[in-house]
Amino acid sequence: MTDSHDYPDNRPDTSIPRRTMARTAKLASLPLGIAGRAVGGWGRRLAGQSAEDVNATLSAKAAEQLFEVLGTLKGGAMKFGQALSVFEAAVPEEFAAPYRDALTRLQSAAPPMSSRQTRRVLAEQLGRSWTQRFAEFDDEPAAAASIGQVHRAIWHDGRHVAVKVQYPGADEALRSDLRQLQRFSRLFQSLLPGTEVKPLLAELAKRMDEELDYRTEADNQRRFAKAFHGDDQVFVPKVVASAPKVIVSEWVSGTPYSKIITSGGAEQRNEAGRLLAEFHYSSPARVRLLHSDPHPGNFMLLDDGRLCVIDFGAVANLPDGAPRALGVMMRLALEGRSEELFESLRAEGFVRPEVGLDADDVYAWLSPLVAPLAAETFHFTRRWAQSQAIRMSDLRSQDFHTGRSLNLPPQWLLIHRVTAGAIGILCQLEAEIPVRAIVERWQPGFAD
């Protein structure tokens, strides 16, 4: 291999902008731009255009701006966009259509950094003689994400590998973005009704340091790869080498879930959904970990029919496996045992002692969410996700007031978000799967 100075690269510097003022200005352009278009739309309404046409135009332009700002900023802005994208299925159709393409693009695309920058990071992390560890290295990134991009290479022993390189300045940008995004949480909530924006941002901020240290991600990936080694349904690439800002693992080619969502046949979508559900529910038992970054860019369907899982930067440690109380509450809700369900929720901290809630109201709020477990198979659809979002966000409904009165204990926050994200992908896939059998096999407390 040749050194970086033998590779002319005239592309502009695309590392993450580090100055808080510059990044804040870009993020601030979202509410300002949307407000400006709203005023313009009001003027067009006065000029005789229909409300439907004006709203469609405004939504489409807002979606483009959302993608432009969140995508080009990388860092926490793009991380937020990727996390938000899995909840697209729950957004009512009149809002979702303009945002679907923009949010889906955030699952797997970001502007690349230059080869000079990439090689500088590799030299800092793997040593000045890093080129000797590779037989070949492709300077063009094969994929780009929120805080790093992936290059295809051949290791010195002939293995084809994926080299993930963290963007320079990712740590500063991630912290700055998440602070600014929290300021605009109400805006995003209004743009995408039915999503829980504020808790999502809080969780991303909490897990920030873990995602920035690729050594932690490598350790997580090694544990998953060991647990699923030789499995006939799930494949996790092995880690070849790692450093704080670089991770090298086996290269894998497959069909991304984002492609299956947009163009897969019913049989392929059903199988992709079944494999995802099996992985989600079995991981706490098999690895004592829960993959906590559920968006379609992290899952592929291999030619041999296995699910390939990548990106283990966000992982929940569950040393005792999935909580038994979760399975118990699911079963009580399914069987209509509202009083026992209420007491279980109170014992786990979902119902605070000082809050006056009715057991039947809590059951009415929760029971539709366990409907997928009532039959042998369940068809997860966008329509179903949207109906749940509308039901729980209608200010006039009892369900809205019940949901607002319930508490989400800290120890349940990540499990809740990851499960909701996985269900979001199932609804995007429109998958019909035997979810009850999967839960019975893997979730403690459900089949007791």
TrEMBL record:
It comes from the Bacteria. GO terms for molecular function: ATP binding; kinase activity. It comes from Saccharomonospora viridis (strain ATCC 15386 / DSM 43017 / JCM 3036 / CCUG 5913 / NBRC 12207 / NCIMB 9602 / P101) (Thermoactinomyces viridis). InterPro entries: ABC1_dom (IPR004147), ADCK3_dom (IPR034646), Atypical_kinase_ADCK (IPR051409), Kinase-like_dom_sf (IPR011009). Keywords: ATP-binding, Kinase, Nucleotide-binding, Transferase. It holds the Pfam family ABC1. This is Predicted unusual protein kinase. Belongs to the protein kinase superfamily. ADCK protein kinase family. Residues 105-330 form the ABC1 atypical kinase-like domain. Transmembrane segments: none annotated.
